[in-house]
Design brief:
By secondary structure, this protein is an all-alpha fold. The protein contains 15 helices and no strands.
């Protein structure tokens, strides 16, 4: 299958490995950057317009919303890995069938996430010990977000399918529409109309819905490889099993990670309102930094999926080595930037002049960033394994992360205070990185990658 032989597609199994990954990764990076920029802008608008209490309310419920979002995001990524494999094989009939089955499973999953999210929101908030002074405010925001999460999932699944066939450019423009609209509606609903956090949630839902509709129209008109007919809705047990197992694997991986973060959030909630706001700000900045080192890793999943389908394991080996080198360079630049300007970033994002908030958030960033070399190894190798169809390793690593967060969160906070929170993830990244490296070099299921073929 030649590159761009099908409208809206890109074959990653030919040409220079690094060039193919970079051309795929640049729009993906821009999409992630745009998403993070929006998240930071959203926090800035809320923090400056509604104050520290609103920022705290967002911090207490965003972790819950992120849990359900990650379940949906993980499922869409799992489906996309299977699609990328069939795309690499070049079997048009199988591609249509896998797209058809993906559509059915996506509808079922989207409805399930909506029902579970809205039903469990209040009990989870109580379980986490959400401060009473921000409980109802946070609930009013999260219930809207979870009630319409299916629109976010629709955009995620359509974007994931486009990336599976090598098209990372179109999702960037769809996200651009979403972000620009979201910021405009945030200013309108929150600042002009004074609708508070519910206004911010409504703005997000409207923007996501528009983005999902535009994505669907683009695929319908420009990407025939993602079309299917009623005849393609064939019950293929092996294909459905592959889709479900890949989707559940990714969803559980993200869910377990986020459950661990929820556990960590409960420990943070015990440290007071200022610390919650500081940590919320620091996590927004650290998410932006993680996105830089994580984008190439995520690109490796699609690159590996297509080349795995084509049986070109030598390309995967070469790409893996080059991507790790680039990630280490990026980590070095991020460390320098945070140590030089971390406090300034915190002040700009939080909109707060509270010296305790600024110093706490800056401390967290300076503690975590030096461990990004370890994080790079974890993300790149894990994504490569996922592209090769490994389902157990991501879940096992995520369960390891959950266990370590559950064991260390309370203990570290008890003896080290907020330093314990800062220590938690670097410890976990180190342990999980060792584990995925052992699997990579020892697991017989990736023998083809380690051999010269």
């Amino acid at each position: 299958m030649a590159s761009n032989a099908l409208s809206g597609t890109k074959d990653l199994t030919k040409g220079s490995e690094l060039r193919a990954i970079l051309l795929f990764a640049i729009p993906l990076f821009m999409s992630n950057l745009l998403q993070q920029a929006y998240n930071l802008t959203d926090i800035t608008i809320i923090g400056n317009s509604l104050g520290d209490d609103a920022l705290t309310a967002i911090g207490t419920v965003s972790i819950i919303y992120d849990l359900f979002t990650s379940l949906s995001f993980g499922m869409s990524n799992g489906f996309a890995i299977v699609v990328s494999k069939y795309f690499g094989m070049g079997d048009q009939k199988k591609i249509r069938q896998v797209i058809a089955n993906t559509a059915v499973l996506a509808v079922i999953w989207g409805v399930l996430m909506t029902v579970l999210g809205t039903t469990l929101l209040r009990p989870i908030m109580r379980l986490l010990g959400t401060p009473e002074e921000v409980f109802e405010t946070g609930f009013s925001y999260a219930i809207i977000m979870l009630g319409f999460i299916i629109f976010s999932f629709t955009y995620n699944i359509l974007s994931a399918l486009l990336r599976a066939i090598g098209n990372s450019t179109a999702p960037f423009f769809f996200l651009l529409i979403c972000v620009v609209g979201n910021i405009g509606l945030d200013l309108l609903f929150v600042v002009v109309f004074g609708m508070g956090l519910p206004g911010a949630a409504i703005a997000t839902i409207i923007a996501q819905t528009v983005s999902a509709v535009v994505s669907f129209i683009y695929i319908w008109r420009r990407v025939p490889v993602l079309h299917f007919t009623r005849e393609d809705l064939v019950f293929d047990r092996s294909m459905i099993t592959e889709l479900i197992s890949a989707g559940i694997s990714f969803a559980l991986m993200f869910a377990v990670v986020n459950i661990g973060t929820v556990i960590l959030q409960s420990a943070i909630n015990s440290l007071g309102v200022v610390t919650i706001a500081a940590h919320t700000t620091a996590r927004k900045i650290s998410s932006l930094c993680m996105m830089v080192v994580g984008t190439l890793g995520n690109s490796m999943a699609t690159f590996t999926g297509q080349n795995h389908g084509a049986g070109k394991y030598d390309r995967i080996r070469t790409a893996l080595r080059k991507v790790l080198i680039l990630d280490f360079i990026a980590a070095t630049l991020l460390i320098i930037m945070i140590y030089a300007f971390g406090g300034l970033f915190v002040r700009l994002i939080s909109g707060s002049s509270n010296p305790e908030l600024i110093s706490t958030a800056t401390y967290y960033l300076r503690f975590d960033l030096p461990f990004y070399y370890v994080l790079s190894i974890l993300l790149v190798v894990r994504c490569t394994l996922q592209g090769l169809g490994s389902k157990i390793t991501p879940i096992a690593a995520s369960l390891m992360e959950l266990l370590l967060k559950a064991l260390t969160a309370g203990v570290l906070v008890k003896y080290f205070g907020y330093t314990g929170i800062a220590m938690c993830e670097p410890i976990i990244w180190s342990v999980c990185a060792v584990y995925v490296l052992i699997v990579f070099f020892m697991n017989p299921h990736i023998k083809a990658l380690r051999q010269n073929k």
